[in-house]
């Protein structure tokens, strides 16, 4: 018998692959970020080394395959094929929400990828609202069973608000995140799902023991749109374009966390290596995406994911060469010119 959660996971995958689930009238605003082109970069492109580390794990370049799925039988193939490519390319991966697995342990196999990806950074995932349902011990047990290196706690008020079955009691969750980040056996970070983290939210999380924030801003997949399509009614389409553009969310979060050792992940509508380097210049430690990986996986399996990641890395290397930067530290020391809406937003 297919559970309600498993049915929902399957529907989410199908909608993301087959339907228009993108923001319509809001972009990431990375188009308003201009880098300083150096016609004489004084380096060889062969010198560009984008390797980095995140929460104690090495990355060949700063890319995280963002959380996509888990909890449905169709998820198993998706996760295994993406994880296999991530292992080959030496980048990290996030899994979908483990709520289904905790409630229905037989679904663990849909999340387990260590057989094909023994070395990569791997993040488990759970909604902030579920911290009220599951004890730290239960969550640690789930994380151990999939051999996760970290726990991503996702915050998705916009998505939950437009779901008829959504959990909209978000009271006390900052306190819960602070409490659980002390009790979970692996490093914890907080992520949005595509509508962005504001300065105020990042500031509230600053005093907790979380290790990073993944801003996952507006401009890519709109989860309010996904759920509107799933229910064919409700308020999802009204809020399709609600949220903070990824570039805005990145700047606000980086500013809020200034002076701490907390890391920032930029994701949400980042589609190529040029945008990824722009994000690094603005202060991101890692970049990531999800929908492009899912789409190439559905068409070409592991081979398609591998090709996509190789191209993404090459685009990052070319961009780094064109701004005269040999490594991540030099990229972080670069300055960007902010234009248009992004400049106005940051000023305000």
Molecular structure report:
With 348 residues, the protein is α/β, with parallel strands linked by helices. The chain has one domain: TIM Barrel (Alpha-Beta Barrel). Helix content is 43%, strand content 12%. It is built from 13 helices and twelve strands. The chain has an eight-stranded parallel beta barrel with strand order 4-5-6-7-8-9-10-11, surrounded by five helices. It has a two-stranded antiparallel sheet with strand order 1-12. Strand 8, helix 7 and strand 9 form a beta-alpha-beta unit. Helix 7 packs parallel to helix 9 and helix 10 packs across helix 11. The chain is globular and about 60 Å long. The N and C termini lie far apart (52 Å). The mean pLDDT is 96.
List keywords for this structure.
about 350 residues, eight-stranded parallel beta barrel, two-stranded antiparallel ribbon
What is CATH's topology name? Answer: TIM Barrel
Number of DSSP helical runs: 13
Q: What's the structural domain tally?
A: 1
The CATH homologous superfamily corresponds to: Aldolase class I
Roughly what percent helix? 40-55%
State the end-to-end distance: 52 Å
Low-pLDDT stretches are none
